[in-house]
Fold this sequence. Notes:
Elements: H1 8-14, E1 19-21, E2 25-26, E3 39-52, E4 69-78, E5 81-86, E6 93-97, H2 98-103, H3 105-109, E7 115-122, E8 127-141, E9 146-156, E10 167-176, E11 188-201, E12 207-213, E13 218-223, E14 230-234, H4 235-240, H5 242-245, E15 252-258, E16 264-277, E17 280-287, E18 296-305, E19 311-318, E20 324-330, E21 354-359, E22 369-375, E23 381-387, E24 399-405, E25 412-418, E26 427-431, E27 436-440, E28 452-453, E29 482-485, E30 489-494, H6 498-501, E31 505-513, E32 525-529, E33 532-536, E34 541-549, E35 552-559, E36 579-580, E37 587-593, E38 599-605, H7 620-623, E39 624-630, E40 635-640, E41 666-667
Parallel strand pairs: 1-16, 2-6, 19-30, 25-28, 31-40, 36-41
Antiparallel strand pairs: 3-4, 3-5, 3-10, 4-9, 5-6, 7-8, 7-10, 8-9, 11-12, 11-13, 11-18, 12-17, 13-14, 15-16, 15-18, 16-17, 19-22, 20-21, 20-23, 23-24, 24-25, 25-29, 26-27, 26-30, 31-34, 32-33, 32-35, 34-35, 35-37, 37-38, 39-40
Amino acid sequence: xRKVQAIRGVLxxxxxxxxxxxxxxxxxxSSTPSNLSTRVNVLSAExxxxxxxxxxxxxxxxSATDQSWEYILTLEGVSEDMLWYTDRPGRESGTETVQNYIxxxxxxxxxxxPNAVLDGYVRxxxxxxxxxxxxxxxxxxxxxxxxxxQVTLFNSTMDDKHPDIPLNIDDIKITVLNNSPEGETNNWxxxxxxxxxxxxxxxxxxxxxxxxNNVYPELxxxxxxxxxxxxxxxxASLVDNWQFYFSSALPNASLTAYTDTGELQVVVLELxxxxxxxxxxxxxxxxxxxxxxxxxxxxNTSLLIxxxxxxxxxxxxxxxxxxVTVHLGFxxxxxxxxxxxxxxxxxxxxxxxxxxxxxxxxSNAPNNQKEFVFKKxxxxxxxxxxxxxxxxWSGCATTQAEFTIYAKSDGRDTIDISLxxxxxxxxxxVSSEGxxxxxxxxxxxYLDTEAVYPxxxxxxTGQVSADCNQGGACSSTANCQVTKDAGATYTVNILGQQxxxxxxxxxxxxxxxxxxxxxxxxxxxxxxxGNTPKDAPNNQVTPITVSNLxxxxxxxxxxxxxxxxxxxxxxxxxxxxxxxxxxxGQVGIIVxxxxxxxxxxxxxxxxxxxxxxxxxxxxxRGVVSVTLEDQSTCRVKIEAxxxxxxxxxxxxxDCNTCQNPPQGQTTHCK
Length: 670
């Protein structure tokens, strides 16, 4: 959560006075409750320490499955009682002793450790901070009121996201989320932060108007276990998507804040009718199982809202400095239409299935982001986001991100980036499990790029007859449309201009493991730095300069040996004009540079169009593989797959052994 300046002058005098719960019932001493799996639990402590776990060699332990770090959380002065309330649609709440809570841990969470949000005053930061973490292996000492956990830290509001020194934290409140129901993995809870808040009576018993004053524009979204995701969206998006999030039942929430005397207050609420205007976020709030007797004013407020319905989400994020125009298009039979997003997306033309809105630039974050929520239905939601160019499915200069959400046939989503109608802005799509598709940075290539329809190619194998088709083969071995499990989150990144996306050049260190046929001499690979050939001998590492071509860093190379090649794609397989010697097919490498002189990826680029004339020639595009061996030095291994060598056509290695070429074909022997 965003940092909140604590009222430390008050807290220093009053200290931690405990957690006050309005209208709570107690379950201490009762038999095992039936609602354990739906409970959200809130506990408090006077102070604590978050200490990194170190190995014997003194190195930090990083989680192998998450971009996170392992710690030991030690809580001192833990309040003997804690608060719980049930996830919607239940409306139960109560108190429990910490000892009983720990005793019920395995029954409550099973084999899936829960996620939690920790709020507290971090001394080294000198302000309140929020930490999103996973709690494991609890140990409670009731005599000393000490509680310890093994902790995986996923994210935080601290400047140092993963501190390597112990942190001392005061006035701790921890909200432990319930796990996602079995079989579901995409449940998200929400958090809001405001410097102050008030609960004002409405005249109806138990119903108040909750005002979050000067609320921060960020909406924090955190995933319930077993997920570990965290995102920042806009407060406005909560209003926009409320009907989709909570159509089946209104949400429960815990409001935690300090009074002007330093007491930590906790109120459990049912929320409805959100409104956001003039930096004030308001709700109709029903206090569960109790009443607040008078208007309550609170400071350093956080509101945690329980998980929404299962849904698919598309989050559009503009990483450019300037605003971007987005045309949102739906096919006629889609179960979602522009009217579902009419509060911000307006139909301005004659096509009733296309609406338009403006996504602000990075200087207006978090308003450079817009979230679209699609609930699970038995129909198709077919959407195209045409970004920064012409309308969807028209024109010749439009990058499109396309989705079919909850396809009726198999209950799965399909996604792709379409360059069929050209290119307007660089785009990538990141799915919730972390896979990145793209980025596309121009209309060049992408014939073998997963989840991308190449320029002018209506399918992976067929050309479009539109004016913007520039010819060339559309043949591809990639899956141009990717299928995902329903209920995922997709982030469409509108990337910065090309000079911001890629470096001008990067030095790639080629580890050449391609061996020529016995008797063929010389280097087995030749790269072309501009118009200058540079040989890379077998079993050696050779530095190669890779330039920015067509918006990406790529370079062509040839596998040496003597092969027949046509003079042009239109001549194949006609032998006339075919020549020898040449290389085993046109192929290239695309690398993604980082800011430290290395690279983060290296892939084979097979989007060259010249063909081979001799059927016995092995195309390098099919039998050469590329592996990134070391990111820091951009060391890339190239090797032949399935063959020990790349055998030249007709066994030719030099002019002496290639005196009788096939009829109509020419050797270039001197």
